[in-house]
Each structure stands twice: as structure tokens, then as C-alpha cells.
Amino acid sequence: MSNGDRVQAIHQMHSDSMLRRTRHAPMGVLAKRRERWFYLLVSPWLIGFLLFQALPLLGALLLSVTEWPLPQPPAFVGLDHFQAMAADHLFGRTLFNTAYYALGTVPAGLLLGLILALLVNRRRWGMRFFRTIFFVPAVISGVATILLWGWIFNPRYGLVNAALALVGVRGPGWLQDEAWAMPALILMSLWTVGTNMVVFVAALQGIPRDLYEAAELDGAGEWPRLRHVTWPLISPVTFFLLIVNLVAAFQVFTPTYVLTRGGPNNATLTLPLYIYLNAFAWGRLGYASALAMVLFLSVLLLTFVQFRLADRWVFYASGER
Amino acid sequence: MTEDTRSRFFHLAVPEAVYYGVLIALAVPFALPLLWMVSTSLKPAGLVYASPPQWIPWPLTLDNLTQAWGLLDFPRFFRNTLIVAGLTVAGSLLSSSVVGFAFATLPGRGKGILFGLCLATVMVPTSVTLIPLFLLFSRLGWVNTYLPLIVPHFFANAFYVFLFRQFFRGLPADLFESAELDGCNPFMSYWRIALPLSRPALATVAVFAFLGAWNDFMGPLVYLSTNETFTISLGLSLFQGSHYTQLHYLMPMSLVATLPVLILFLAAQRYFVQGIVTTGFR
């Protein structure tokens, strides 16, 4: 008996014993036992979800309708905080800045990520090297590289303006200039686009090769193949990245906190930073929570809109998901 | 231009050189900042501010590096960061893998809804739950300890759960069925069969979790208040606040803070990328 036969035989025995079992013991008992295991093994997530996500979300909702000057007990103030927002010119500014940042980073980030993925996803010499070069910045991005970029954007000693000087352009003040601070942060974020690239590469590698061969036999050139084979097949991943990047853009905090503290003249004051400052620098927990609800609802609304729009461009091969 | 001539154009007229030229042109802005950081860290302070910038660090010196090292308590920051990152990795691996296993292999009423809910939590920005969580953790007396940074990671993370679920779904289902018929309960088949097979997924999540903890800023900023407890990222920002103009110290410090993750990534890269591919964002 060869090894393969033996494996076959064992499998046969197992499926036989399974059949016998289903005949004798009703499947219900076994299924119920497995279901109990499901709930047991899922419980770490479920408990964490209730404790660290659902409960705090409810807490934020409650806090948003209270005033809580910390030593004193909280007091119910209804929708006062939301009314105060309407009169708060900084709030309008943060909404604008957050939208600016999202519009500047998300579409460009997806496009650049896809272009890089298409470029490095070839069987050619040196592709692993280039993949690493593009991905490393995303991996190491933290306070250290944010400080590095602050230095690169330095108007006098920085690399960017030195490069611009080479072609005879006098560079702007970047992070110190009200008009250029946000574009600088956006450029900085594009430096970490390697995450999108890696996810796109994984998606590209999942496309069956014979689809391309079939398209080629039909006489489809490079662009039609990209348009009619690659694009529809990676559209679910594009959609996934769109949502994830959108949420990430609405969370941007560290670069604005570390480099600009929202300045100059509030040009980089984003909603998460404004929430943080209200809560932890100015002790306005209620107002900060109301802002947090606005942030949450904006993300929810945007995601909902994206899911609605997805029907028009996201393609799911039959049988998937 | 017809479809046909166009494809011929792409195949023949665009030579390899242009292809590599484009790649190199794109790679330069990704690589230069890091090379600049290394170069700046190794040259004398006077040359850091040279204009036009001097790329080759000459004369080579470690002065900035050693002086910067003395300015902040780096060994302590490193130790603190390693504690937080190490426990974050352990918690993420244990909890997310077992939850991912349950979602992948076990039946349960409401499983679809639970999984959808799990994925939906990705959409809740951290700053939304930050204030109530801070109040909760301060009530528990956890402020200025590492517990708020570590404990939540022992309760699974949606993204990692998804990764593990995708991976376990790729394993043959009768593997677990036959184990169960041999008397294994689902936890045993998770522990003895699924986990040893899932090295790429484990490596991927471990690297993600480690990087996340190493680079986290908001968490340490909110929960840690005394210098002795600071992590690397918080320590760096502290320095930035007090010595903003001393760029020749800032670069070596950033380099020192970045090197460990860079080395980790390069060492684990193979597993890591393979893990992302096999766990299928497909």
C-alpha cells in the first residue's frame, strides 16, 4: 500500500465513522457542542468589544450631553455642546482641515499604491529590492520619521527646498507657512503608501494567470487587460483599502501634534487633535465628547456612502463572499 | 492608434531601461529621507546645517550619536517600549488567533452578524472612544502604568482576527474534523494542529503588532505621565519640545529609535509579505 493509498484509506475510515456517528448520535448534540465551543473561543473578542468599544462608545454619547468640570459631578446639558459647535469657528476649521487632509491623502495614496504595485509585481530582476524600498517607510513610520520630515521640510536647511533651489525655485516655508503646512503633511503621508502597495500586490498575485492568457488570445492589449481583467478583480481590495485609508485619514493625530500642534494659525488643526486638546489640555470633556460623536458620525456616514457607491464599481466574482 | 499597434508598442518600443528608470525615479523620494537621516547622524554638527546639503558624512564621527544618547535616558525608553511591544505581541497572537480559528472553523448562530460587527469596529476612530476609556482606566487606577496600553490587546483585534480567519479557512477542513473524531476538542485542534501550521500568519500579526506598539504615540501620550515610564516615541517628542533647534541631535536619536524596527522588519520580511499574501487580501 503506497503512502497516498494509506492516507486515502484513513480518510475513508474517518468519513465512514462520521456517517455512523451521524446515524447513531443525532447530529444536533455534536453541533450544539461545537456551537458552545464557538462562543467560548470567540469570547475574548466579544468581551473586549463590549468593554473597550461598545461601552466607551455609549460613554462618549452620554458625555456629549453632559458638562463635567472634573472635580465636580457631571451635569446634563442636552444639546448645548452641539449648539456651541455652530458658533465655534475653530470647529469649522477642523472640519475643513480634516476633509482637506482626507481628500489630499486617500485618492492619491490609492493611485500611487496601485501604480507601485503594478510596477513591482513583475517577474524581473530586482523587484524584491524595490518592493522593500517602497515598503520600509510605511513600516518604520512613527515619531522618529515624523521628526525627520520636519527637518526635511525645514525652509532653510531642509532637503525639499534644497532640491527646489537646484531648479531655481525658492521653496515655501512648508510647516511654518499657513498655506503650505497641510500640503506638507499630505506629502509626508504619501511617503507611507507602501502599505497600500503591499496589499495591492497580494491582490494582483491572486488573479488567475489564465484570465490574462485568455484576454491576450482575444487580442487585448496592455491597457484593456488592465481595465477589464485586473481592475474588476482587484476592486474588492481597492474598496477595502478605500475604507481603511479613509478611517485612517480621519484619525490623523501624531504628525499634527508633534510637528505643528495644529498651527500655523490652526492650518493643521484636525478633528482628532482638537478632540485631544479639548479633553486633555483644556479639560472640556463634554465638548470633546460631542466632537468625538461628530467624528464618529462623519466616518460612519462616509463609509455608508462608500458602501452605497460600491455597487457601481466593485466587482465580486460569483461565489465569493 | 489601434489596439494592436498599441500593444506592440508596449511590448517592443518601451525598453527595459525606461521601466527601470521609472522605478528608480519613484524609489528616490522613498529612500532619500532615510539616507539623509543616516548621513546627518554621522557627520560633525557644523556640517549638518551646510547649504547645499552635504551627502557624504565626512569626516565621519559618532560624536552626535554619543552626545544625543546621553541627553535622554534611551536605555530606559528602549526597555519600556520592549515591555509594551512584547506583551502587545503576545496578547495579539494568543487572542486573535483563537478568535480567528472560531470564526473560520466552528458553527454558531449569529456568527455572520458577530463577524460583521467585528469588522465594523475597524471603522471606529481611536479618538472617539479615547475619553471614556481614559476615565475607565483612571477609575481602575491604571493611569501611568502600561496596563491601558497592553490589556486591550489580550482581547483580540478585528484586523488580526480577519487575517487569522482567512488563513485558517485556507487549511483543509477535514484536518480539524478528523482531529475532533480522534477525541480532540476544538481548542485542542486549534492549539495542536492549527497553530503550528500558521507560522506565516503568526509572523505577520507579530510584526504588525510589534510595529503598532513601537510606533504608537497617542496611547503613551495619554496614559503615561512620568519620564521613567516613557516609551521611545514619547521620549523623542519630549526631546523635540525642549531642544527644537538642535537638529544634529534629533537625527541620531531618530535613527536609534528606528533601527530596531528596521532590522526586525528586514529579518522577518520574507515571512511577513508571504503572510499577507497567503492570508489573502483577495
Topology:
The complex is a heterodimer of chains A (321) and B (282).
Chain A: H1 3-24, H2 27-63, E1 66-67, E2 75-76, H3 80-87, H4 89-120, H5 127-140, H6 143-152, H7 159-166, H8 181-190, H9 194-205, H10 209-217, H11 222-249, H12 254-260, H13 271-281, H14 285-313
Antiparallel strand pairs in A: 1-2
Helix pairs in contact in A: 2-14, 4-8, 4-9, 4-11, 5-9, 6-12, 9-11, 11-14, 13-14
Chain B: H1 3-13, H2 16-41, H3 45-48, H4 63-71, H5 74-105, H6 111-120, H7 126-139, H8 147-150, H9 158-169, H10 173-181, H11 186-197, H12 199-215, H13 218-223, H14 232-242, H15 247-278
Helix pairs in contact in B: 2-15, 4-15, 5-9, 5-11, 5-12, 10-11, 12-15, 14-15
What features would you describe in this structure?
The complex is a heterodimer of chains A (321) and B (282). Chain A is an all-alpha fold and 321 residues long. Chain A contains 14 helices and two strands. Chain A has helices spanning 3-24, 27-63, 80-87, 89-120, 127-140, 143-152, 159-166, 181-190, 194-205, 209-217, 222-249, 254-260, 271-281, 285-313, and strands spanning 66-67, 75-76. A two-stranded antiparallel sheet of chain A has the order 1-2. In chain A, strand 1 and strand 2 form a beta hairpin. In chain A, helix 4 (89-120) packs parallel to helix 8, helix 11 runs antiparallel to helix 14 and helix 13 runs antiparallel to helix 14 (285-313). Chain A is globular, with a radius of gyration of 27 Å. The two termini of chain A are 41 Å apart. With 282 residues, chain B is mainly alpha-helical. Chain B is 74% helix and 0% strand. Chain B is built from 15 helices and no strands. Chain B has helices at residues 3-13, 16-41, 45-48, 63-71, 74-105, 111-120, 126-139, 147-150, 158-169, 173-181, 186-197, 199-215, 218-223, 232-242, 247-278. In chain B, helix 2 (16-41) crosses helix 15 (247-278), helix 5 (74-105) crosses helix 9 and helix 12 (199-215) runs antiparallel to helix 15. The two termini of chain B are 35 Å apart. The model of chain B has no long low-confidence stretch (mean pLDDT 84). Chains A and B meet through helix 1, helix 2, helix 4, helix 5 and helix 6 of A and helix 1, helix 2, helix 5, helix 6 and helix 7 of B.
